[in-house]
């Protein structure tokens, strides 16, 4: 990448500077990361190797686990290593790559969750038309659109990041590279870029959350016409989905739709929330 500034590397301050707390960060997030990787890989292998898990719900769950694995791997390993490292230097190109990966896989999770809510809506509200509407070709097209939309979003974010000029200092008050902490280091006017960040990432988080909550409200309202056994089965699936949506979207909205008043707390909340995917999505 061509650089038009004097900064060639950044220093990540991480979650804490206290040695004892750094060890706690290492242990906690190492456990979270291992659980996330193992859980998601088990889901991926199980769905791929089973001939009975071919429904659209498991089709989307496969991609949710795959994307969650990639998202966690793009952030957490460096956080774990940096928690025990005296020097937390990240080169400029690697930092920009992390910005792209963070937004690409994060946006992909949003789209996959929306597709999963669509699948549940059709299955519960239009059961007779479910095989026709949610056939494999349609599901494949939805996933392709999700990849394309996520790529466009990530490209937009990386273009904004590349437009920033850095003259020093190079200390990022964050555990990874993202646009918001980079804006604080830029030596140019960042008002327009900040506005674009809110209208881009903030709009995706807010619109996705509202869309998902409305769809699940409609689903839950339609369950009144189902049998007791049918309601119990549908509620079991929808409840876990709703919890995942709330845990993942609330920190995203909190971070990207308003100026951070306490960025470190929000960063910790966002990072921990994404690691709960493996505990809930497997239901």
UniProtKB/TrEMBL annotation:
Segments spanning the bilayer are 24-45, 57-80, 100-118, 138-162, 191-222, 234-256
| Described function | Putative odorant or sperm cell receptor.
**Compartments where found:** Cell membrane; Membrane
What are the protein's GO molecular function terms?
Answer: G protein-coupled receptor activity; olfactory receptor activity
Work out whether the entry's keyword set contains Cell membrane. Answer: yes
Pfam families reported for this sequence: 7tm_4
Keywords tagged on the record: Cell membrane, G-protein coupled receptor, Membrane, Olfaction, Receptor, Sensory transduction, Transducer, Transmembrane, Transmembrane helix
Name under which the protein is recorded: Olfactory receptor
Task: Give the family, as the similarity comment puts it.
Answer: Belongs to the G-protein coupled receptor 1 family.
Chain ranges of the G-protein coupled receptors family 1 profile domain? 39-251
**Membrane topology listed for this record:** Multi-pass membrane protein
Identify the coding gene: LOC103672358
InterPro entries linked: GPCR_Rhodpsn (IPR000276), GPCR_Rhodpsn_7TM (IPR017452), Olfact_rcpt (IPR000725), Olfactory_Receptors (IPR050427)
**GO cellular component assignments:** plasma membrane
User: Sorted alphabetically, which PANTHER family does this protein's record hold?
Assistant: OLFACTORY RECEPTOR (PTHR48002)
